Amino acid sequence: MVREVEAHVVATFPRTGIRALEPRVLAALASVPRHEFVPEPQRAFAYEDRALPLGAGQTISQPFVVALMTQLLDPRAGDVVLEVGTGSGYQAAVLAALVTKVYTVELDEGLAEAARARLLRLGFANVEVRAGDGTLGWPEAAPFDGVIVTAATPEIPPALLEQLREGRHFVAPLGPHGLTQSLTRVTKLAGGRVARRAFLEVEFVPLREGE
Ligand code: SAH
Question: Is the entire prediction scored with pTM above 0.70?
């Protein structure tokens, strides 16, 4: 799977400008047993480079996209990061292999509970899962050294930008629901300014409104 992902990165280089994945990202990808995050009927495909259904209308992202988003976040060893859209917990686990602490929020209570149990069972002790509306972030744990949203949103939810440390990145598929979005990195600069760069057209399930 890791080799397939590397080949995919090379093939999309003309579009993304990303020549290769960093060794630490590849190592993190190789260290997480993806089959543990995939529902039983999909297990045979766990190590293919494609998105798979999680149930509840949600999907576990394609490993190539997980790897790309991870690299764009530029996670460092001492970091505390926030993910919105836990899903299976796979992206959180990949990040957990790279940083000190991952906070992740999932709107669907069933998915949140399953991901929490799974991550605990697999020994990812540095991930905290919360059921709730991730567009509000996790104020008690802010500021974050990176914020990643793994569902499509037209714009950055303001609370998430607020909870991001200056100089660090927000990574998300930005764009309309039901169509393709642009995998975008937004860097928080001084004085409330941001720098934005789009890397790739992607297709994510929508970020939903909390009740
Ligand atoms: N990162 C996941 C895949 C995410 S799919 C993985 O690695 O498996 C997108 C997820 O976002 C879905 O599970 C969906 O329920 C969740 N979601 C949608 N809207 C949300 C919101 N407002 N807050 C938190 N999670 C949300």
Answer: yes
